[in-house]
Amino acid sequence: MKKVYIETYGCQMNVADTEIIMGLLRKEGFERTDDASSADLMLVNTCAIRDNAEQRVIGRLGELKRHKNGQNLLGVVGCMAQRLGASLLDRCPHVDLIAGPDGYRSLGQLILRAGEGDRVADTEFKAWEHYEDVTPMRSGGASAFVTVQRGCDHKCTFCIVPMTRGPERSRRLDDVINEIGGLAGRGVSEVTLLGQTVNSYHDGKSDFADLLRAAGAVPGIRRVRFTSPHPNDFTDRVIEAMAETPEVCEHVHLPAQSGSSRVLKRMLRRYNKETFVECVRRLRDAVGGIALTTDIIVGFPGETEADFLETMSLVREVEFDDAFTFRYSVRDGTPAQKLGDVVSKEVSGERLSRLIEEVRSIARVKNAAMVGEAREVLVEKVARRGELLQSRTRNNKVVLLEGTEEDIGGYQTVRITGTTGSTLIGIPARSVRNELAVVT
Ligand code: SAH
Ligand code: F3S
Question: Does this model's pTM top 0.85?
Answer without folding.
Answer: yes
